[in-house]
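Cross-posting from the modeling subforum.

Setting up a comparison between two proteins and wanted a second pair of eyes on the formatting. Protein 1 (sequence, then structure tokens):
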Amino acid sequence: RNRFCGASKPVWRVLGMEKKGRRRRCSAVGKDVAADLNGRIPLYKSDWLTTDGRHCRRSGVFKIASASLFSYISSILPAIVIGNILDDQTDGQLGLPEVLISTGGMGVVWALVGGQPLCIIGVTMPVAIFTSVCYKLAEALDAPFLPWLGWVCIFSGARRTPRTRYSADLTPAPSFPAHAGLMHIALAIFGAVHFVNKTTAFSCEIFGFFISVTYIWDALVALLDPIITGKDLDFDGTYPPGTNDTVAYDELYKTQQRGSAFTNLALAGGTYVLCMAFHRAQRWRLFTPGVRVLLADYAAALSLGFLTALSYIPVVDDAIGDKRLDVPDDNGLNPSFDRSWPVDLSAGAEDPAAELIVESASNATAAALEEPLVLEAWQIAASILPALMLTALFFFDHNVSSKLAQDPKFHLQKPSAYHWDFSVLGLEVLLVGLFGVPPGNGLIPQAPLHTRALATVELQERASGSGHKETFHSVVETRWSNLIQSTAVLCSVFALPAIAVIPQGCLDGVFLFLGMAGFDGNELWERMWLMITQPSLRARELRFMGADTRYSRVQLYTAIQLAFVVLVFVLAKLPYIAVAFPLLIAVLIPCRIYWLPRLFTPAELDALDPPEPPPDSAREPEPMSPRAEPARPSPWPDGAAEGGGLHLGGSSTLSEAHQAL
């Protein structure tokens, strides 16, 4: 019996996996996927029709609207940057249209059939790195890139060798693996996703820290590179008619470009400061509580809109020049170059980008490229290795992002569905490979920030009196926000000129905001700052430090995590070798299980990396009254009165404000 929708027939019985009161021996295969379906199918109706599991309330609808807009902004802007990166790294074979269609299309499918709709799906920066490395590998193998990438995605889903057919010249050519087992689905069916339960805070903190550092690094490089190194400041175009002094023209051009770089730096700083200020508006004393909640919910949208409007002041607009978002001129569902969306993956298929390669090649190499590249059987077999790397990346990246979106601090009421979700992801990866677009998976930090946007956030003063902490309750567990933002991303291919009005600096400022917001709640970030905190103040902040945990052990644990962050970051930036960086991420789990217990005592590990509560699917939540709020821990020490000092958490002011809103 489920508290949301009443009794429902178990999926075990629907799938014929139960007989005479006990499961058959074969039910071990697929039982986890069936258990996920048994937990989520009865809730599917409530995912669409309710905001609190029972009723559809107006406050929940407002939360869905604000979360949809926030998630759209946090998805579309990184997608634009990733599209431009792929366009540059793949010589125009992949670009913004493919990234938008992959992010939006996979998100729509996920919102409709995914088990946990709170997880945001899209093309991530690690996937962009992986795809760029695949392009270089395809060049080294003389393989056509798009068909080869398609086989990487298919082999990332395929386990059995596909049946072969023969072409006219009796050359064996692998056909489409319609009957091949799916690697992602196989991992889910055979219960391998249970391995995600061994992913403790040690691994999640490192990976979340790595993603945040990547966002911040890319933003700072884009902002400071032209200023410090003079990159892209040299004039490489055609001089205007009547230009006599080319040297003076070059100097004038450099001055204008450097001024544009400084202007974008100022816009990025303004966007970041406004985003962070509005993001933390509930800590203000200005305005009413309802207004502060609205400012926090629409922080990114308000900041981006204000700074974009400011950039059109004539003086600022002249200083920016052409440094606005670079998007294709064509609107609509058109690929980056002239080709059909479905990609021919059969052996002997010619490169669909052959004409594009010849056009972009120099005259010296154009003659050598008259014969288009042809996909050969051995090249298809060679795609298995990067496919394994992609599977390892998605196994860790997606499940960690899904786990962060369902963090116990959010107090979600509906169960998780890790096995079913990974099966759906495998099917989506297979489909995007057929259409020649980059694959996507769960986004960090967008996924946990999406859950945060759907939650009611309150502030509680720390017991030590040194600041406040956020508490979350009443998360609107719905499919609407993910569906709305994914549909908006997909429809953005028809509104590229509207996106082009945003200055590049505002985009970098949002990147800085996403990176810094991803540090919220990451104890690695807090412990890193504690290493340079005044010693007399450390004891007040060390919530994770037990009676048997010395501060030197905390420093060693933090140093190990930071070392892993540096290793993963450096490996992800190295050419060719970057394809293996998912393996280093996957190594984090066995390191935590087998290596750390040799360096730390069980008591120290329990304090630094505490065990998590049982998975959501294993617990039965108690029914809640429609207007009741879950019990929240008191911010005051035992025996202390809730008296003097600033006390925001648990106060009636915010509760009344939420009800009024």
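Protein 2 (same layout):
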Amino acid sequence: FFFFSLSLSSHLSFVYYYYYSSVVKSSSKLIYKKKTIMATLAYPDKFHAATKVAKLPSLEFTFTDETRLLLYALKSQAMHGPTEIKSKWHMTREERGKYETWANLGKMSNFEAMRLYVKLLEEEDKYWYEAIDEETMEIKENFGKVMTEEERMNSNNASACARVKKVAKWAEAMERGRWETTTTTTTSTSKPPCPRYQHGATLTGDGSKMIVSGGCYRGRFVADTYAFDVAASRWRKMEYTEDERVWGKSFKQEEKESLAPISGHRLITLKDGYTYSFGGKFSKGSKRANDTDLAVFRLALMEAEENSSSSSSTSVLKGAWIPVHVKGKRGPCARRGMSVTKVGKDGDVVVFGGEDEDRRYLNDCWRLDFKTMSWVACDENTNALTGNSSEDQKEKAAVASVSATFVTPAARAEHVAIPWGRDKMIIFGGTGASFKCFDDLYALDVSSGKWKAVSASSSSNNNASKTPLARAGHCVASLKNDRYALIIGGGNNQNGVLETAILDLNEVKWITSDDENNPEFMKFESPKFVGEGMSAVSFESVDGNESVLMTFGGYNGSCGNDLQVYKLPNEFPTRGTTIAKETTTTTGKTTTTPSTNNNNNNSKGDGEDEKKIAELHHLLTQAREEANQIRADARLVVDAHASLQSKLEHTERMRVDAESLLKSERKIKAQLNDKLERLDRENLRLRERLKEYEGNNKAWF
């Protein structure tokens, strides 16, 4: 509040503008397109209703400090009149800011202060009156309630799942509870991306496009960018352009460049609707390869009409990745394999962990303030390491050097993070020092900068631990209004992980699907192609009836480029009705099967049905055992393939290193031969001079 008095004049001008303009417009009538009770509510009732709404944490959270000061001053002026003259020398900065703002209102009338209070609240939220119950004039029950850690917010602006009005027609026609490989429309201008892993992928803000950028294929980084049109079910490759409509006027011609080949970066769509790229490792020959700061780019797209020989023209997708200048003296260093998450109502970005250019694993945490576009240390550990902490935090950092006082996750990369509640995020998995993979959960409270180890329970009825396997290189997607986090794929530096883990973020427990011990929950099958470095995105209809999950790419011994789609059952994750109690006749009529009957024929029929059911159960058990054996065999084949591929890549690297060493040795040998030849020539020259000298001496004697 120390610097707020510097900007009070600009904010007070807002107050006095409405104050004096009201005198001129006092006789004018207000015309509303939609009549509500607020339009006819008289003062001071309207003012008292506004003060109740302004106290709601969900709304107060969005206020700036200047807005809070003005609301406090107007409320005090309306209820108590002008402030008394006081000495400011003993006041704190906050008290001084409040006092000066109130005093600057002068002799404003109580009614005018009430009116301006309501007007200012309308500037912040024009639908504030929706929180008021029209009958009791009190806040509606549970309106704007702040959720606990065990609850999820139904209207979280930092959602990891895109909301669409209506899913595409091909998604509506899909069978629920089954993975399908999408058949995309392929033309000369719309071909799918090449196989890849460790790429970046996200959905645009409206859920109309899935953006895929960069990645690794056959040991090389790729630099292309594709957009999957969800409605048309087709891929479109972005063509790089230097058009001023994309770059704007602030970039000079020499500053414009296409995105270099990159891998291990993260794509995310922020509050402004643009897709951003964070971090990643660039190819060695690119200009960005030696950057020390975390790279941030913004994707700008445009539709361009391309004339063809036919009467009709085709639409071409053009665009560029625009470098974003992030403010701040300190920030995250260049890295790959970190997590990038939207947290909070303002849609700020939190970057955690990763692997730097020296192959060191990191556990620092940074927040990108979306309003100011500047980096801020996000947790106690980073504050202590960077020296951006306050005096109290510096004292804690000194103590931490002797004994660990900060709860901080171990340094890691290739983990996942997802928003959790209003100002929290939760991370899972990753790999760290000595190639150790993690299966732990940590939650970060962004507002306080404190980490907390999360112990998730299990939905299984037995006492055995049902924590998912440790893994790295996996992907995550949230569904069902951000309640469930689906963790797909990954590996543990030895084998690939085929199982998909489901985390209930409301109850903080792992959803397991053990048929014997946990018959309540359905068995969630993994995609047909599952591996490391794959990506996953999700979108849901606004009404919540349709939830769709899409995965792309990955590596399980070979790279993939299949777009796999899964449509969630309505009863997910529970099984729903497993045994049908009704049978349908040939005429289409539904009849209820009786449970008991005294008729001997019916009893014989029941006995035969029980035998058939027993046989079916036996066949089903055999099929499951065979399927499990096939999965185990497939896992062995995949692991063997991955091991051979790893050995092949290692051998290839050794061959390249050996060739490089041989070339250098040949070069050294050639240099030595040149030196020997020069020495021989010099030796001959000296011998000749010595002979001449000896001859001259004999002639003299």
